[in-house]
């Protein structure tokens, strides 16, 4: 398992920084965003350190499919019948602030498009 000990989200996975867990299995961790932009706003991340969407390869992409399975399951459990938005930001222009692949899941209010 690749981890980067100067990475904020690797520290959250390791329990060195506290977080509000939504879901966890051997491959992924999901937790509440510290600065929610919607009534429901959590992040789903691979436990393996992947720097962002731009670092997904044939070797590590299976976890991305798993993340989307997990998102669908959590959405059913949370009864997000009104819908939800899944976002990943890659790089500066997109506003990525943490260089560990993460999928924002937001729900509970109508969303506009394009997103910002
Ligand atoms: P990005 O801007 O990279 O797409 O998303 C990073 C997200 O991580 C932001 O929504 C931000 O609120 C969240 N975040 C940053 N630091 C922490 C933290 O220490 N704990 C939690 N739970 N979320 C964080
Ligand atoms: Zn990391």
Strand elements, count: 5
Give me the secondary-structure category: alpha+beta
Bound molecules: guanosine-5'-monophosphate, zinc ion
Residues in helix, %: 10-25%
Mean pLDDT across all residues, rounded? Answer: 96
Order of helices and strands: HEEEHEE
Low-confidence stretches: none
Shape: globular
Please give a structural write-up.
A hairpin with a 7-residue loop joins β2 (28-32) and β3 (40-46). This protein has 2 helices and 5 strands, in the order αβββαββ. The protein has helices at residues 8-14, 62-77; strands spanning 21-24, 28-32, 40-46, 85-87, 103-107. With 116 residues, it is of the alpha+beta class. The radius of gyration is 14 Å and the shape is globular. The protein has a 5-stranded antiparallel beta sheet with strand order 1-2-3-5-4, with helices on one face. Bound molecules: guanosine-5'-monophosphate and zinc ion. Guanosine-5'-monophosphate binds next to β2.
Short description:
By secondary structure, this protein is an alpha+beta fold. Helix content is 20%, strand content 21%.
Keywords:
116 residues, alpha+beta, five-stranded antiparallel β-sheet, 2 helices, 21% strand, globular, binds guanosine-5'-monophosphate, binds zinc ion
Furnish the topology, listing elements before pairings:
Elements: H1 8-14, E1 21-24, E2 28-32, E3 40-46, H2 62-77, E4 85-87, E5 103-107
Antiparallel strand pairs: 1-2, 2-3, 3-5, 4-5
The structure holds guanosine-5'-monophosphate and zinc ion.
